[in-house]
Amino acid sequence: MFHYLAQYLLAQTEGTELGDLISGLRVFRYIAFRTAGAAMTSLLMSLLLGPPIIGWLRWMNFGEHYTSKAGEHGVTSAGPFDKRGTPTMGGILLVLVIEVTVLLWTQINYLVALALLPLVVLAGLGFFDDYTKVKQQTSDGVRGKVKLVVQCALALFIGVYLWMVPATQRLVTEIMVPFWKYPVMTGATVTGIALIMFTIVGSSNAVNLTDGLDGLAIGCTLLVAAVFIVLTYVAGNAKIAAYLNVPYVAGAGELTVVCAAIFGASLGFLWFNCYPAEVFMGDIGSLALGGVLGIVAVLIHQPFVLFIAGGVFVAEAVSVMVQVVGFKLTRRWFGQGRRLLRMAPLHHHFQKLGWPESKVTTRFYIAGVLCGVAALATLKLR
Q1: Is 25 part of any domain?
Q2: Number of compact structural domains in the chain
Q3: Residue 90 in contact with residue 53, Cβ under 8 Å?
Q4: 168: Cβ–Cβ under 8 A, 6 or more apart, which residues?
Q5: Which residue from 63, 207, 274, 373 has the least number of CB within 10 angstroms?
Q6: Would residue 149 count as lying in a domain?
Q7: 195-233: buried (b, 16+ CB within 10 Å) or exposed (e) per residue?
Q8: 3 state DSSP class of 42
Q9: In a domain, 317, yes or no
Q10: pTM for this one?
Q11: Cα atoms in the Cβ-side hemisphere of radius 13 Å centred on 374
Q12: What is the pLDDT of residues 53-88, one digit of tens each?
């Protein structure tokens, strides 16, 4: 909105004295300026709206008064803070702030609209899941198969849409991998759609699985968002993309503003979600944020780079799969299932080893920074 308003005022006052006075509004044409503005706006909005929204969630009794699955397995926080009763569904704050910030600072195009689609759809799915848990006061919400069907349907729609639009068809049919200049596959429609679905669904669920400790998921999210601020800017700039031999996507520069909004909103939410958490993100936030990161990676033709930047999320998701598959195989081979990890997801394994919650979170942040640096290295090492 700010971009359009600035251009309107400049056009109406062109050639006048007032036009000279407000000529500084031309800065709204620059993505870098709007990116900084989006980050600051979303951060300030999160800090300002956080207390009243948390108060409203507490007043509505949207809190976890039940024992979590981790607690059922003997994993509790080391410290004097009892998490029972802490408001959940704090993802409402994240979704609201990101949506408003994007509408204020972006020059809306179809890429921005596609990026916001999973934010809305998956936030709705997460809200229903969180509300079911709170209503029943149990850790079992919407059935996993139902969530998976909704996520797959959304991802399939996005994949088919990108394939049907001539301007974005190559995002589906050409498969790009990190550290390589050229597509490793061309004309791979089925493979491309499958990769898009895997990226969006996998990213959404991976962030959701990581959301088990205070500040863990949101801190790792803002690290990935920071990396994608750079990647989207490069993908949307024809000269820089050509120099670095990365895929250029017309209009992708506006996704930089989207990533900045996610970064600022995540940073503001971390203020309330750090240990000891005043509010939990809930599925409404984790499913939505993961889905948005997935679609942004797809829209700049770099889905595999997301797996590098979000290495912490990948490790968390893989740990769950390894635990489940390993238990089933050992039960078949030895007659009794054996756990390869003390508990999954991975952060609970380290808690079982005796690490305090804050130490697990901090060390996962360090791993997230290293993954982010590795992802940025793919821009030059080709």
Answers
A1: no
A2: 1
A3: yes
A4: 162, 249, 299
A5: 373
A6: yes
A7: bbbebbbbbbbbbbbbbbbbbbbbbbbbbbbbbbbebbb
A8: helix
A9: no
A10: 0.92
A11: 16
A12: 999 999 888 876 655 555 545 555 545 455 777 888
Neighbouring-strand partners of residue 175? 185
pLDDT at position 78 is 47
Domain that holds residue 293: 31-305
**Contact yes or no for 102/261 (Cβ under 8 A):** yes
What span, in angstroms and rounded, lies between the C-alpha atoms of 222 and 243? 27
Other beta carbons less than 10 A from residue 166's beta carbon: 7
Q: Distance between terminal CA atoms of the chain? A: 38
Residues in a beta bridge with 185: 175
Amino acid letter, 337: G
CA-only gyration radius of the chain, Å? 22
DSSP E strands in the chain: the ranges are none
Q: In whole angstroms, what is the distance from residue 282 CA to residue 92 CA?
A: 9
Domain membership flag for residue 225: yes
Average pLDDT over residues 292-305: 95
What is the per-residue pLDDT across 181-195, written as a single tens digit (0 to 9) for each?
Answer: 888 989 889 999 999
Residue type, 365: Y
Please give the DSSP secondary-structure letter assigned to residue 354. Answer: T
Per-residue pLDDT of 154-177, as tens digits, reads 999 999 999 999 999 999 999 999
Distance CA 229, CA 262 (A): 10
